[in-house]
Specification:
403 residues; 9-stranded mixed beta sheet; 2 domains; L-amino peptidase D-ALA esterase/amidase; alpha+beta; Ubiquitin-like (UB roll)
Length: 403
């Protein structure tokens, strides 16, 4: 039985957090500047993209977090990635931090910055110069929806989640928002995620738990196999819930980690469901693996297979494509031992025994949620990935992204 419950409020559900989102002119008509603020300095943990081509905000945030363990605000823009923009781009990211700090009356080293959008274009700083003070003036404990809208690019819906649970006699909340729809690949997936909690928790433990949660969520989704220059996930913990400090190895730490996992996995699944042009969410479970790393590698390979994803879009139970993806995953396996099912419908048995009922398979694959179960029959380890189908609409969106 879960010891936490979902509640509304997203990134402002926890005590002491405010957010806002405004339109300032980076984009044509949609909100494009967001601020998330803790009313007191918060502990911070973060995970960034592994792409070697890093956007200016990612480079700058990494430098800030080497010097500071506290954060009071995050400022983010959509419509422009501020990536591959050289010294000017770095200076523009610094200016966004400076403007936010000035508007909120806080030190610059307590502000992080994020951007998402088109690569290789300079930020329209005149618009941002007016937008950040506007966003600061509109900060509200009810501003999560505005902030989540302001960080969207090709997303079709805002992504937010929050849960509440008890640490001792204190109600504790974890909430967050995320954006992501295309350029999604494990390590990390184009996505931004901002989470908040009012829990008291040890600094080092927060980073450990957060990284483990990211590895089980945002690093387990794939839309198109492309890794962005701007990906980041950040969590702020301001301690305003008043609980005793959560320490490593304690039951409270286990509960906190389970609640955080629920939030980040929920947000990750929303991103996969909202893959550009997608019509189906696909959950891939690999079990019976010789090791956890084998299970992860096998699931990742299937999740990244464009041939598998196009077959699912066409509602074709093409199990040969799945076995091919497993075969190039780098995992030592015995193909004749593999068993497959889709939405609990047996597809393939051991020794390549074809179990598929094409008519029933067509009905199963017509669903919006597809579960693909793969049993390697080599051990006891398992892993889950999430992806989506690949459609003509994906090509349409990305063929004209800059226009």
């Amino acid at each position: 039985m879960k010891k936490f419950m979902e509640i509304p409020g997203g990134v402002t559900a926890a005590k002491g957090f405010e957010a806002s989102g405004v339109f300032c002119g980076i984009r044509k008509i949609k909100k494009d500047i967001a601020i998330i603020r803790s009313v007191i300095p918060a502990k911070v943990a973060a995970v960034f993209t592994l792409n070697k081509t890093l956007a200016a905000p990612v480079v700058l945030d990494k430098l800030i977090l080497k010097r500071s363990t506290r954060c009071s605000a995050i400022v983010a823009n959509s419509g422009n990635a501020n990536a591959c923009t050289g010294e000017r781009g770095f200076g523009d990211a610094e200016r966004m931090i400076e403007l936010t700090a000035q508007s909120l009356g806080i030190p610059q080293n307590e502000v992080l910055v994020a951007s998402t959008g088109v690569i290789g274009q300079y930020l329209p700083m005149e618009a941002i110069e007016s937008g950040i003070p506007q966003a600061a003036a509109l900060l509200s404990e009810h501003g999560s929806d505005d902030a989540s809208e302001a960080i969207m690019t090709t997303d079709t819906f805002a992504k937010n989640c929050a849960v509440r649970f008890m640490i001792g006699e204190k109600p504790i909340t974890i909430g967050g928002i995320a954006k992501g729809s295309g350029m999604i690949e494990p390590n990390m997936a184009t996505m931004l995620a901002f989470l908040t909690t009012d829990a008291n928790i040890e600094d080092g433990l927060l980073q450990k738990i957060f990284r483990r949660g990211i590895n089980r969520s945002f690093n387990r989704i794939s839309v198109d196999g492309d890794m962005s220059t701007n990906d980041m996930a950040v969590i702020l913990a301001n301690g305003m819930g008043g609980n005793a400090d959560i320490t490593e190895g304690s039951p409270d730490a286990e509960l906190f980690e389970a609640a955080l996992d629920h939030v980040v996995i929920s947000l990750a699944k929303m991103i996969a469901r909202d893959g550009e042009g997608a019509t189906k969410l696909v959950e891939i479970e690999v079990k019976g693996a010789a090791s956890h790393s084998d299970a992860v590698a096998a699931a990742r390979s299937v999740a990244n297979s464009n041939l598998v994803k196009t077959a699912i879009h066409g509602e074709d139970a093409n199990w040969g494509r799945i076995l091919a993806a497993l075969g190039y995953s780098g995992v030592d396996l015995f193909p004749e031992q593999i068993e497959l099912s889709m939405n609990n419908l047996p597809i393939l048995g051991k020794n390549y025994t074809i179990l598929i009922d094409e008519q029933k398979a067509k009905v199963a694959l017509a669903e919006k949620d597809i579960s693909l179960s793969i049993d390697l029959n080599q051990g006891t380890d398992s892993a889950i990935f999430w992806t989506c189908d690949l459609t003509k609409e994906y090509i349409h969106i990305n063929a004209s992204y800059r226009s």
